[in-house]
Design a protein that fits this description.
four-stranded antiparallel sheet; alpha+beta; homodimer
């Protein structure tokens, strides 16, 4: 099992995280991951062209919001909760509490 | 005294708020406002061309992050704390706690 490139904990920038979350598709992915915890990319966006899905997961990963594990032909993605809670305490909790529907 | 257009409380979208905060200039403005509470637009961005300053304040206002009051020739801007805390509880607190330097 290997992981794709992601920024180090200290390199995660708040502006990059906000940019990643400013798109409705990516925000939807993140909020689903906050509930589901661990799920495959294909399952998360089953109705989306693969290229579009890859783009959104790349933005999330390169901003430091998610970590992607490659397991054979499958990509599995998780929220970097520890890193985000350490860098920006309360941000993920606030995201989970937001009253706006997904 | 009058205010410029801003979205109603129920129209504030999380993606628009995140977009507004995804720019380093605007994030800097918001974090200064969280401390200063009430300050003129000109004072906040004294070293910036007026057109650039106006653009950033418009994005912040139209996303629902700030409210702009017009007092004669001066624009005064405040964070919409009550609306944001109601729509997205904990988001402003998390922003204030973020360890990233301004």
């Amino acid at each position: 099992m290997r992981t794709l490139f992601e920024p180090h904990h200290d390199e995660i920038r708040l502006t990059a995280v906000f940019h990643a979350l400013s798109d409705p598709v990516r925000l939807d992915i993140v909020r689903k991951l906050l509930v589901a915890a661990d799920i495959s990319c294909a399952t998360l966006c089953a109705d989306m062209p693969k290229s579009t899905r890859s783009y959104h997961f790349r933005v999330l990963r390169e901003s430091g919001v998610t970590r992607t594990f490659i397991e054979g032909a499958h990509h599995r993605v998780v929220i970097r909760c520890d890193d985000l809670n350490s860098r920006f305490p309360g941000m993920l909790d606030a995201l989970g509490r937001a009253s706006e529907p997904v």
